Amino acid sequence: MTAADNDGRVTVKELMGAFKETTLREHALSAFKSIDLNKNCVLTFSEYMRRIFPYANDREFKVMLSWVKPAQGEQQEPTFEPTAEQRKEIATMFKRMDANKDGVLEVNELVAASAVFGYDESEVMELFNNTDKNMNGLISFDEFIQLMKVSYI
């Protein structure tokens, strides 16, 4: 599998698109999550190599990475990091979405709140499943912050 846009990285969206409506979809997502070491929903070659060669020391790993050179002028994907003020706003949004006030978001709460922003249920379900890192069927505030980083709901 390769990145759909040939940027050298595979995103959850690209992976799910490749496995659309197949029986391997859930297995592929599980494998993706196990390789995605920093849990940012983007697989890099470095993360992939760390999983394939878990016993390689740092020197060996550096040598292996030197075999593959990034494309000339390739830039790192910017990551949204909320400021203290933005975290307060996100906390307010989280509390408003938490209809039953139990301190976590259930999928139905996220679906209802996201519909206002034009998201359809299938999009929200995919975002929810990708965000629920511990797979307990709930999104904590920390998981919600990660969701905001990738979706800007």
TrEMBL record:
<dbReference type="GO" id="GO:0005509">
    <property type="term" value="F:calcium ion binding"/>
</dbReference>
<dbReference type="InterPro" id="IPR002048">
    <property type="entry name" value="EF_hand_dom"/>
</dbReference>
<feature type="domain" description="EF-hand">
    <location>
        <begin position="121"/>
        <end position="153"/>
    </location>
</feature>
<dbReference type="InterPro" id="IPR011992">
    <property type="entry name" value="EF-hand-dom_pair"/>
</dbReference>
<protein>
    <recommendedName>
        <fullName>EF-hand domain-containing protein</fullName>
    </recommendedName>
</protein>
<feature type="domain" description="EF-hand">
    <location>
        <begin position="85"/>
        <end position="120"/>
    </location>
</feature>
<dbReference type="InterPro" id="IPR018247">
    <property type="entry name" value="EF_Hand_1_Ca_BS"/>
</dbReference>
<keyword id="KW-0106">Calcium</keyword>
<dbReference type="Pfam" id="PF13499">
    <property type="entry name" value="EF-hand_7"/>
</dbReference>
